[in-house]
Hints:
Elements: E1 16-20, H1 25-36, E2 40-45, H2 48-60, E3 65-69, H3 75-88, E4 94-97, H4 112-140, E5 143-148, H5 161-180, E6 186-193, H6 199-210, H7 215-222, H8 232-242, E7 254-257
Parallel strand pairs: 1-2, 1-4, 2-3, 4-5, 5-6, 6-7
Amino acid sequence: MSESSGSGSAAADGQVVLVTGASRGVGRATALRFARAGAAVALAGRDVEALAETARAVEEAGAEALVLAFDVSDADACRDAVRRTAESLGAVTTLVNNAGIAESATFLDTTLTDWRRTMAVDVEAPFVLTQAVLPAMLQAGAGAVVNIASIAAKRGFPYVAAYTAAKHALLGLTRSLATEFATSGVTFNCVCPYYIDTDMVRQTIDAIVARGRTEAEATARLANPQGGLVDPEDVASLCLFLASPAARSITGQAYNIDGGLHQG
């Protein structure tokens, strides 16, 4: 799907959306989807040049963009990003916690450093950012936090113990907040994709090919039951829906985007 495609609706008029991991893949697709729907978008990530490219695309879609270059594992930087967004665009009305990392190793080869880094990016960053944006949402009586988890939040996978544990924790955090703030007007939901057609997954395919498989065989190993990889645009569309008035009664949920792999 091209970057210029979309409904052209103004479903997110007046929203201020902060998207982490916005330089590429799901984060970029999500930022552009919100921009086309009328939202101002704060773009968080570490790759300044890639963020600038996303910002140009957001502005070409007719929306305001703010580039926030920082590492989400830095709690102070996360809080500062929320402050800067409020000063430049207005208080965050939707937070999309998309940034994440996944290191592949056997459990016995997984180091404590790898474990802590994964937890810092995949769980602690959403925790800190949600704490930072929530007071303004509660004051407004409305808002949405959308956490990009994974099918690994619902089932175990080998060689990614830290990632699987982190995504389970992120889902648990989401459900806890949905319960605690059920009457606040703020919603908390997870999106749980299987392998997505992104640079990260393409690197995984390249690694499989390097071990002697063909590209077709490598891709087939990661394909969902529908026979392919998840399109980032599909994840972006669900994020937009979960931040819309149509989803105001949906909270504490975990939506699979996996071509029917995990039916639960």
